[in-house]
């Protein structure tokens, strides 16, 4: 069984409690721990939203549409789960007038509540958050009390060792797990394949209508594909519109496929190569965790909590920093300029690229260089704090906070020891 896509190693030895999550969206609650709290003054309008069963990007596009402004004026610190209740700040830039402020307050966005609307001086950018707080109910357990005890044991251990910093399914898409495959095609410099994987490529767990639309694309019937596309295919339609237009002028070229990809919102365009990097990163983490999650190994590249590389320490000093969560070993998010570790760790990192028949240079994505990546070193573990598990009538309620950019499902898979989505 593939757990979390290329994530193959556990840190904790307890038998998993099993169970299920997300039986209903309300069972999974996420709240952003912000870096910036707007102070009530300034040209930008901040909204503290609570959304249910929607992606952050969908809410942002709806707000831009209803205000008749460019989506480029919208900012947020991070993407939050769709299948959950989530709270986060959304920022709308340059809304100076009182009238504009009232327009924002008056918005009625599907399955989204505006809990606070307040002015702020600075724009909100991706990554400007400290972390996220989670409250997740695990249901369908044989023995709730015993499961809560096991979950607390696992959480105690993880607070001591850290959690493998795997990317979760959200990074790759679920049930249609193709984001990293589009990225792989881009890294192979094959734009036609990248577009085909996204628009075509029907899968059994989709509605019959959507499968037919994708099949029509694969068969070369672009207009038929466009007309068959149902709900939830907003982005495919954006791309197809470009291709239908271009196909009227003759055979489709790389430039046409490039224009189709450019029709997507920029954050989504960037997610493709990121997802492929994440897929390879998970493999590196699996192999590095086997060597010891909280152990310094000669040749490791170590980063501190600000993500700066730490140099010129003795092995004992490195180990002390790791023990205190002041620094962590890293794995590569592969890219054109990412440095490899040395010795056994470095060889493991290089072998992964060799096995996929690619080199660092592939991440240039020559045909769409803006989607290429220099890569970087990312911590191979993350810190979990304020962690507890409580037995309730319905199951075990797991509560914890984790660093930004890390996945709650990486914590849950250690507790449940099963595929967690």
UniProtKB/TrEMBL annotation:
EC number per UniProt: 5.4.99.27
Active-site residues (renumbered): 81
GO BP of this protein: tRNA pseudouridine synthesis
Keyword annotations from UniProtKB, A to Z: Isomerase, tRNA processing
GO molecular function: RNA binding; tRNA pseudouridine(13) synthase activity
Reaction(s) catalysed (UniProt annotation): uridine(13) in tRNA = pseudouridine(13) in tRNA
PROSITE patterns: TRUD (PS50984), UPF0024 (PS01268)
The TRUD domain, residue ranges: 162-382
Family: Belongs to the pseudouridine synthase TruD family.
Summary of the function given for this chain in its UniProt record: Could be responsible for synthesis of pseudouridine from uracil-13 in transfer RNAs.
Protein name per the record: Probable tRNA pseudouridine synthase D
Species annotation: Methanobrevibacter gottschalkii DSM 11977
């Amino acid at each position: 069984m593939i757990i979390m896509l290329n994530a193959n190693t556990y840190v904790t030895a307890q038998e998993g409690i099993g169970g299920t999550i997300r039986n209903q969206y309300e069972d999974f609650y996420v709240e952003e721990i912000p870096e910036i709290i707007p102070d009530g003054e300034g040209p930008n309008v901040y909204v503290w939203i609570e959304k249910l069963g929607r992606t952050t990007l969908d809410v942002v596009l709806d707000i831009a549409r209803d205000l008749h402004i460019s989506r480029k004026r919208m900012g947020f610190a991070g993407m939050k789960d769709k299948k959950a209740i989530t709270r986060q700040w959304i920022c709308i830039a340059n809304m100076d007038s009182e009238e504009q402020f009232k327009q924002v307050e008056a918005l009625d966005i599907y399955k989204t509540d505006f809990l606070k609307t307040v002015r702020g001086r600075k724009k909100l950018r991706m990554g400007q958050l400290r972390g996220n707080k989670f409250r997740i109910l695990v249901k369908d357990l044989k023995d709730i009390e015993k499961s809560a005890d096991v979950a607390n044991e696992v959480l105690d251990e993880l607070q001591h060792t850290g959690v493998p910093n795997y990317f979760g399914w959200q990074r790759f898409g679920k049930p249609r797990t193709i984001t990293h495959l589009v990225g792989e095609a881009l890294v192979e410099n094959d734009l036609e394949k990248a577009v085909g994987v996204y628009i075509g490529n029907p899968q059994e767990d989709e509605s019959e209508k959507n499968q037919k639309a994708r099949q029509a694309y694969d068969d070369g019937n672009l207009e038929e594909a466009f007309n068959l596309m149902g709900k939830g295919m907003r982005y495919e339609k954006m791309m197809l519109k470009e291709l239908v237009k271009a196909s009227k002028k003759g055979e489709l070229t790389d430039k046409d496929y490039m224009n189709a990809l450019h029709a997507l919102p920029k954050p989504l365009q960037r997610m493709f190569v990121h997802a492929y990097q994440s897929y390879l990163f998970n493999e590196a983490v699996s192999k590095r965790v086997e060597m010891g999650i909280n152990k310094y190994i000669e040749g490791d590249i170590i980063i501190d909590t600000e993500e700066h590389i730490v140099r010129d320490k003795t092995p004992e000093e490195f180990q002390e920093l790791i023990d205190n969560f002041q620094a962590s070993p890293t794995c590569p998010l592969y890219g054109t300029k990412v440095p490899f570790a040395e010795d056994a760790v470095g060889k493991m990192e290089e072998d992964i690229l060799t096995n996929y028949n690619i080199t660092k240079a592939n991440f240039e994505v020559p045909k769409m260089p803006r989607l290429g990546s220099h890569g970087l070193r990312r911590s191979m573990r993350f810190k979990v704090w304020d962690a507890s598990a409580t037995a309730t009538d319905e199951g075990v309620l797991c509560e914890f906070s984790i660093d930004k950019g890390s996945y709650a499902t990486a914590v849950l898979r250690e507790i449940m020891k099963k595929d967690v989505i």
